Amino acid sequence: MVTNGAKVIIIGAADGGQLSTHVKAAHDAGAIVIAYDRLILNTADVDNYVAYDNFKVGKLQGQALLDGLKAKKATGPYNIELFSGSSDDANSKVFFDGAMSVLKPKIADGTLVVGSGQTDIKQTATAPWKAENAQSRMDALLTSTYGSKSIDGVLSPNDTLARAILTSVKAAGKPIPVAGGQDSEPESVKSIMAGEQYSTINKDTRLLVAQAILMVKDLQAGKKAPVNDTKSYNNGVKVVPAFLLPPVIVTKANAAAAYANDPVLSLLTK
Description:
The chain is of the alpha/beta class. The protein is 40% helix and 14% strand. It folds into 2 domains: 8-46 and 204-246, Rossmann fold (3-Layer(aba) Sandwich); 54-202, 3-Layer(aba) Sandwich (Rossmann fold). Strands 1-2-3-9 form a 4-stranded parallel sheet, with helices on both faces. It has a 4-stranded parallel sheet with strand order 5-4-6-7, sandwiched between helices. Helix 2 (54-72) packs parallel to helix 3 (90-108).
């Protein structure tokens, strides 16, 4: 793209920590670099970031876990376990930190009890976002920690892992815990409507694409790309000016309204 003279390059990085040489080459050639969905890390050569507010995604997941637990049982303590995403994904830490900003005070006051004691992101990571890795870790946790007791809730970073975790718990013959996810995967929407998975996060990709296009159009017109956050996303070298879209928490109660404009998912809520 640089060789062909691209003036704006949008990068959706699977591993945001491996691109510093490439984005420097783009910058040196006069291109503007926009990180899409995942932040590009440890470089000054990224101009803008466009994404859903991933820290808020984590906060919504943490709050949904608390809400779901309270709906099942009015008061704690609640036995929970924590899962996070792949350690090479820049978003994994953001999701986890957002969730823990909500959950840590409840762990500290004893409302939430992490039975395994595994609360560090290195302990909770799921490489590389694979369902079988989440399921095998849940299997191990059930064996080591929950022999004679039930698990009330699980923090899961996305829908695929949430379903794998629920599969593990069901196979062990234990009651289904409160578990959420994100991405509004059809199988998880079905699970939510069936009363199993508790929640997901809706991040409509169509809106994210539209915002990325608007940024390019403004740059093309000689304007600066629009931003609405200049404080939150530090990539290790600089705070990257960002345009953040608002994620939406979805439970069975609001699924029909949340997916009303989605031609596929709306059918699953009827």
